[in-house]
Amino acid sequence: MDFSVLRNLISRYCAGEEYWVDSRTVYIGHKEPPPAAEAYIPQRYPDNRIVSSKYTLWNFIPKNLFEQFRRIANFYFLLIFLVQLIIDTPTSPVTSGLPLFFVITVTAIKQGYEDWLRHKADCSINECPVDMVQQGTVVRTQSSKLRVGDVVMVREDETFPCDLILLSSSRGDGTCYVTTTSLDGESSHKTYYAVPDTMAFKTEQELDSLHATIECEQPQPDLYKFVGRINIYKEREDPIASLCHGYCVCVCVCDALLTIILHPVLENESAFSSSKPLLPLPPSRSMNAFLIVYLCILISKAVINTVLKYAWQWSADHDEPWYNHRTEIDRERHVVIRAFTDFLAFMVLFNYIIPVSMYVTVEMQKFLGSYFIVWDKDMYDEELGVGAQVNTSDLNEELGQVEYVFTDKTGTLTENNMEFIECCVDGHVYIPHAICNGQILSAASSIDMIDSSPGGYRREHEDLFFRALCLCHTVQVKEEETVDSIKRGIHLGKPTSFYISSSPDEVALVEGMKRLGYTYLRLKDSHMEILNKDDEIERFELLHVLNFDSVRRRMSVIVKSSSGEYLLFCKGADTSIFPRVVSGKVEQVRARVEQNAVEGLRTLCVAYRSLSPAEYEEACHQLSDAKLALKDREQWLAQAYDLIERDFTLLGATAVEDRLQEKAADTIESLQKAGMKVWVLTGDKMETAAATCYASKLFRRSTQILELTKKRTEEQSLHDVLFDLSRTVLRQRSLSGLSVECQDYGLIIDGATLSAVLKPSPESSGSGNYREIFLEISRNCSAVLCCRMAPLQKAQIVKLIKASKEHPITLAIGDGANDVSMILEAHVGIGIMGKEGRQAARNSDYAIPKFKHLKKMLLVHGHFYYIRIAELVQYFFYKNVCFIFPQFLYQFFCGFSQQPLYDTAYLTLYNISFTSLPILLYSLIEKHINNIIPTQKKRDVAKNALLRWPVFLYWTCLGLFNACIFFFGAYFLFDNTTFTSNGQMFGNWTFGTLVFTVLVFTVTLKLALDTHHWTWINHFVIWGSLLFYVIFSLLWGGIIWPFLNYQRMYYVFMQMLSSGPAWLGIILLITISLLPDVVKKVLCRTLWPTATERAQVGRTAT
């Protein structure tokens, strides 16, 4: 028997990890290759349906229950409920089952509603109409029915249904402009090129005759990377291999284009979007630790009562009194089994000390509280038309615990709105419409912007410089009247052209050249046209584009002039250009670059190289081999770029200004006053970034700057530099106790030195020594600037601070794709919805329109939410101690018989009805300082201050004290006393009801005393909860309910209220219970007031 067929079927339908290959073959139009070509192997791919939902109609109940009972608290109460069902316990299973059912139901409804919204969004996308080319005709179908290999037609302003390869465009040069708003939010236009061998196919019939396959890599998580090639089969010819250019996704802004589906939605790049696991942070860790303590208390109570019960029953009279003889079955059971059963019964009796409803209340508080951030009108930006967004509601309180803020510079602190300021050619400065070579020029004519009388050599370099900036870019000229349905560039009723690009720097440079007399006109038929200062059109054939990347920090183009000369133009950061320059006025240009950087301008250097025909052919061969490689294409391209981009002649440099955002300096100053350390992580050069830091008040004029840069480590060893800086800051710290004036330090470190700090050194067993010294230095600096940072290094900095011994809470904020790594690494990630796109906002926990909104996000919302969640957690444990400790004391007076003190209805409804709404509302709208941004007051709650063990012990002791007052106060009032007018004594259930009444009123009034911000909602909920308890007790005990087998509470509550001493006892016990807390607050506010309390007093005085 041939098992190969069976093996192929198994590999086809049950493909696992072992059958995974690095590449895939896509058959255009599902056409089989010619017989002489490679074997046709049909492949199975996922369909094109979007599935972002978590549940289905069939698996919702089991899957949701499984996830909920994975929580320790829910699983614990499930066990308690099962114990009540199995053994004879003192309380009804309803007392545990109903609260558990309530918690599970509320959580399931919340998660089900959220998943229903996801299902609804999925359907709207899956049913989106798409035009597909089949057998030479266009067929309308749904997006979900597309398959890999289908050819689709996309028209202007349509959203792409999946990842596509551009085969043909309505534009003659085979280009299209694409925005990736639906993927990463970037509204800037990106240019994509059709495959050269297919761009001639303009109609559906022509494309139907195409016989080709595409070999490409498997789907990758990188949104901006693609490796593939197309093989076109022609009759009696070998297949032609051609490079597949970067494929396109999202919105097309061309008339029409023909594309082939490469990856379905479930495999496309957006499906691989990064997410970070939610780790337990200090408030959550504190809550879990407190829960463990209370669990230990519960077990201790059960053990103590079990031991004391058998000690009490050691006497025969106590063991089996005359009124309660045991059955034969009970006598025959082993004492260990009886003891274990009693232990479980006591666990059931005291289990209410664990607040099961606390978790659902915390979830509701976080979920509902996130809407207050979204609804905040102060965080709405009129210019962008957007407000704050909350992607993760589980971190609201962590916003108030942030200790380190890591921020990007460009687009975060600055506007990312580039304006061309000047350029420098061989040391001569050109400023548009202002000064040229020291001469004030008129702005009437752009031709006057350039000195028309330089020498021959200088004139040649000047022309090359301006041509280089007009040619070395990826800017496109848009001549249509509309872009994104917005009319632009219309003057006197005639449409005019304007520039679009994915980089605002490039547009600023090209527009700057236009102001200086050199205008970039268009890219037509692979030829770039520019209008020089003599109004002559120059044409250059664009041969190759060496795209910019963050590692090389430069881009280049190879062009051919009309005279047949091959030119390589390159522009990039000074650190990436100067080492590759062999001629030119380097020192003059370097001096101007450093001066511009000190002024806070963004600088780029421009260089060129003339290529001989042989050098050009060699460069073409290197680029072709690298671009056709399916494996490690990035490494091959990097090597090719490195060999080509060398032996430059330096032409000059440019300076572009990126203005500081509105109120960025005020925001940084407020964060520093609140005790937060602010670090700026940027890829810019040191001088530019330092100027921005001074402008944003990160550094002050009195700040002593400590430099840990490559320049200094070249003069001294890294070891010596680190120890010198360490001695400097430690000496100042030792003197700070003796002097009022304390020196303010600021640290500047660059990417190269950071790599050396983090890299294991041969001088020691590892890099831990250098890391600790660096951390010690940075701890003693008020601000840190990290310049020349790669995206991965930004994440390494955040990770380094997170892992330090203090384990501080970190926040990272940025606006671009290069900031995603540090946003995901930080505890809290915030994305800015800026001009570099929305990828940072998409991967963040929160998104805000501008950097200035961070001030209110942290100092108001974060501060308030931390105080609210801290009060919620402590209050839940407090009120449950008050609730269950009288039950523990009662066992000493009932012979440890497991007799409950409270009625079943009270046990069931205490946490889910009588005391739940006031604390939930408090945790949503409480403001201990009304409408004031508490900058200095944040330090009162820093380091998780309100959830530390001393505060927890205070709340627990207060609960124990109140519980003793409730129980013994009622006990002594009952002692030898007749309460009713007819001399009738109160019974057991009346005693328990009296204790429970005092309990409910005390814990509710305690919350009322802690409330500072009163609204009508507070009054309604607090007094309404007390009224609801009274009305419920009257109805529960005043009506004979037919569904109850026995009604032990009948007329109990009315009988208690009919007694004057009972009223007096309730008022007296409530007053005594609340008095110590009131006295403590008065004394602390008078003798040791916090900054918050002083602000409250000042607010009241004004």
TrEMBL record:
Q: What is its main location?
A: membrane
Give the catalytic activity: ATP + H2O + phospholipidSide 1 = ADP + phosphate + phospholipidSide 2
Transmembrane portions of the chain? 286-304, 335-354, 905-925, 946-974, 986-1008, 1020-1044, 1050-1075
- Which cofactors does this protein require? Mg(2+)
Active-site feature positions = 408
Question: Which residues does the UniProt record annotate as the domain P-type ATPase N-terminal?
Answer: 42-96
Q: How would you classify this enzyme at the top EC level? A: translocase
Q: Which residues bind ATP?
A: 408-410, 506, 548, 571, 602, 682-684, 788, 794, 818-819
Subcellular location, record wording: Endomembrane system; Membrane
Q: Which superkingdom heads the taxonomic lineage of this protein's source?
A: Eukaryota
**Every P-type ATPase A domain range:** 130-189
- The EC designation for this entry is 7.6.2.1
Q: Where is the P-type ATPase C-terminal domain?
A: 841-1090
**Cellular component terms per the entry's GO annotation:** endoplasmic reticulum; plasma membrane; recycling endosome
What is the membrane topology listed in the Swiss-Prot or TrEMBL record? Multi-pass membrane protein
What are the UniProt keywords, alphabetically?
ATP-binding, Magnesium, Membrane, Metal-binding, Nucleotide-binding, Translocase, Transmembrane, Transmembrane helix
Family affiliation = Belongs to the cation transport ATPase (P-type) (TC 3.A.3) family. Type IV subfamily.
Q: What is this protein called?
A: Phospholipid-transporting ATPase
